[in-house]
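Researcher: Structure for this, please.
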Amino acid sequence: MKSFATFATTALLAALATIVKADNCTPGLVYCGHSLISKGNYRAQLDQVYQDVKGITVTSTDGDVWNGDLFSCDGGRSGTVTWLQSCANGVCDDNGNGKSDTCA
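Model: Predicted structure, token format:
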């Protein structure tokens, strides 16, 4: 019974590691705000970046104000992001997996 518990624990840890990796952005790539939301739960981080960089407190009535902005992925366990710029026309293109996003 002990070997089954060890196997089950190992399988669970492997599954969780895959999930965590899938939710993190890739260091060195640039992401649109909406791409980060699609990739993982970055809403709180994006809201905090707006507070820190722009002095704007994002509320639930603001919607996804950062969708037209570009962010770099700094990596780390939490997938830390840094605000780079707002797209001039407010439109940001998701260029697909493994590629940096760009302003439209």
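Researcher: Any notable elements?
Model: The beta strands are 30-32, 69-75, 80-86, 92-93, 102-103. Helices lie at 2-23, 33-39, 43-54.
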